Amino acid sequence: MDEGTSPEFEAFQEKARGTNINEDTLLATDYLNHFNEVVMMIDMLPDMPDCLDMVKEWQPKPYKDHFRDSTIADKDLAVAAYDHVKPLYKLAFEDTIAQVDAAIFQAVADAEEAIATGDMDYLRFKISESAQGIHRLTERLSAIVHGTADLSGLKEPKEEVVMDQNDIDALFN
Asked: Which of 16, 58, 147, 168 would suit a FRET pair with 138, their CA atoms being 20 to 30 Å apart?
């Protein structure tokens, strides 16, 4: 067993072999589909600004919820395995998801502003700028899923320490 891996992690690695779940990270690329459709629609806004209402309907969706609502064959495994993703991967993954969500909402706000002014050149510029940032972030998500992202700058999250009332009382005695 590798240092830092649990028997549960290794059991999920075995279950992930031959599936669309990466056996090294226990993450699945299918989650990226949650972003791909809205990003494609954002990219189309300069040519089809009337699609803005559809783009505005998009909402963030947590990883497990995405798979619970999915039709892929390994959806139950993807949901169960997520609880065993190594903390460093999960931290990087969830942080990047938050950045993608924010970038999408910013792109929508920028598009809405540009469309309201009727300045299609400005819309094209803002969408191009937004799309580049979103694409970089989704590429990072993909690299995290595949275990190829550089996570050297991140620190392993510390396990949360929870004290019960007896422990708290003992501190004051």
From this structure: 16
